[in-house]
Design goal:
With 131 residues, the protein is of the alpha+beta class. Helices cover 24% and strands 37% of the residues. The protein has a 4-stranded antiparallel beta sheet with strand order 6-4-5-7, with helices on one face. It has a 3-stranded antiparallel beta sheet with strand order 2-1-3, covered by helices on one side. A hairpin with a 2-residue loop joins strand 4 and strand 5. The protein starts with a strand and ends with a strand. About 10% of the residues have low confidence.
Amino acid sequence: MDNRYFIYEVVGLRQSAATDTLNYPIRRSSSVFIRVPYSRMNQTMRRISQLGGKIVSIRSPTPDTDVQSSFAWWIEIVTAEPAVTYYFGPFDSPEEAASYEAGYIEDLEQEGAQGIAVTVKWCKPDNLTIF
């Protein structure tokens, strides 16, 4: 079982009937920090978008002590429109990373991203989403 999780910083969420079911209040004027399991990252990104929010950062909760923050294989996806760099991972091998590539590309295409370039890298990204 994968127990990795990340913290999403989100702005612009609207309080609505859909957000009333969440365990935290939504205030449009400030950031909301949401703890997201690795296995639900894409689903959470879509939900935030549907609720009118914008993810301004994604980070590991404790990057200095988190074992997952060490160098590993990551998928780097750069989109021309919107101009964003995404990192997905970490993975144990380039083959494992490549096996997930198509799903990430499909999600970004469904969200309207254009000019998608993909690279599998051995690295340690400081930020998982760069605007």
